[in-house]
């Protein structure tokens, strides 16, 4: 399987894939902090989009076959073609990425018919946000409480006190190279 984009959502996808039994997990990204956590969560192969075509690198590493599943967790609209080209027939492509910054700024996600096998390539594309709710949160908490996933690996910047909230939010806007997630601890 492959995860395209290894920031917090993609890193969580890697951890989830490992928990679900994935044996080989390709993580696509370049930031060293993310790569370190991706490996800790179970990524077996790191692919850099700076070193050439992402899908081609994945196909070359799988003897031309591609992967059974792709999770799109980051990147611009063009990343969907990477997902289609990395996925083998019969696979599932799940998009959890948000394309755009607001309503109406991205009208087209390119899916050329040839690359998509003229819609006969047996690749299922699924989209959607993770459903919320109490039951899902309890299940996720159980995974953490039983030591099956350590979310603290993503907490790269720890702030103490409510007055640090703005500083943490601004840090996310700046997206420094060593940032995965800032955490603000508020004590009573």
CATH superfamily of the largest domain: NAD(P)-binding Rossmann-like Domain
Termini gap: 43 Å
Rg estimate, integer Å: 18 Å
**What is the CATH T-level topology of the largest domain?**
Rossmann fold
Looking across the biggest beta sheet, what order are the strands in? 3-2-1-4-5-6
Report what the structure shows.
By secondary structure, the chain is of the alpha/beta class. It folds into two domains: 2-127, Rossmann fold (3-Layer(aba) Sandwich), CATH 3.40.50.720; 150-188, no CATH class. It has helices at residues 8-19, 32-41, 54-61, 79-86, 134-145, 165-174; strands at 2-4, 26-28, 45-47, 67-72, 87-95, 124-127, 155-160, 181-185. Strand 4, helix 4 (79-86) and strand 5 (87-95) form a beta-alpha-beta unit. It starts with a strand and ends with a strand. The mean pLDDT is 89.
Which properties best describe this structure?
Rossmann fold; 32% helix; 188 residues; alpha/beta; 2 domains; six-stranded parallel β-sheet
Set down the secondary structure blueprint.
Layout: E1 2-4, H1 8-19, E2 26-28, H2 32-41, E3 45-47, H3 54-61, E4 67-72, H4 79-86, E5 87-95, E6 124-127, H5 134-145, E7 155-160, H6 165-174, E8 181-185
Parallel strand pairs: 1-2, 1-4, 2-3, 4-5, 5-6, 7-8
Helix pairs in contact: 1-2, 3-4
